[in-house]
């Protein structure tokens, strides 16, 4: 006849109370082999979570390093002339909020800055980007919040009989969007009496 463990345990508790404790100890001892399995599972879970955390931290750190690595650093020079009178290019373009109007290119900047900045009033444009791409004079003007076209030059209206001109390294350019910024490039935007052809 087969006796179940439950019935055997009850019988021991009723008839052999002294031996019941040894029975329960034997039963506990019989269950002990499952503990190493639980420990092994916990270790696997711990190391799995640790590995996942390390991978995630590495990915995030890689992205942070990538976005804060300068891959382009160029310094074109911008001059603004209004009928022969120099106009100061202000310091703080791309860093001072009042001189940082367009944020559409901020993803290319380093350390949360615009990719275009001016650090003094010399007209030197600092282009610092975390990505290799071409940047244009129009994009710089957008960040500054100024316009250069046939009607105005940096907030100055072009009077009748005068012209708005863009000169890049001694050559006339028609559109600010066509001017790709390069290192040591000399750019002049100006209003002159007469035609821009006088500058060529």
Structural overview:
The longest helix is centred in the first third of the chain and has 34 residues, at 34-67. The strands form three sheets. Strands 3-2-10-8-9 form a five-stranded mixed sheet, with no helix packed on it. A three-stranded antiparallel sheet has the order 1-5-4, with no helix packed on it. It has a two-stranded antiparallel sheet with strand order 6-7. Strand 2 (77-82) and strand 3 (85-87) form a beta hairpin. It folds into two domains: 5-67; 72-199, Beta Complex (Ferric Hydroxamate Uptake Protein, Chain A, domain 1). It is built from four helices and ten strands; from the N terminus they run H-H-H-E-E-E-E-E-H-E-E-E-E-E. With 200 residues, it is an alpha+beta fold.
* Proportion of residues in β-strands: 15-25%
Order of helices and strands: HHHEEEEEHEEEEE
Mean pLDDT, all residues: 84
Largest sheet: 5 strands, mixed
Q: What are the segments in which pLDDT stays under 50 over at least 5 consecutive residues?
A: 27-31
* C-alpha end-to-end distance: 116 Å
Structural shape:
rod-shaped
Number of strands: 10
Task: Give the name of the CATH architecture of the largest domain.
Answer: Beta Complex
Which CATH class of the largest domain is shown? Mainly Beta
| Count of alpha and pi helical runs | 4
| Strands in their spatial order, largest beta sheet | 3-2-10-8-9
Q: Helices and strands: which structural class? A: alpha+beta
Number of domains: 2
CATH topology of the largest domain: Ferric Hydroxamate Uptake Protein, Chain A, domain 1
Helix content: 25-40%
Radius of gyration: 38 Å
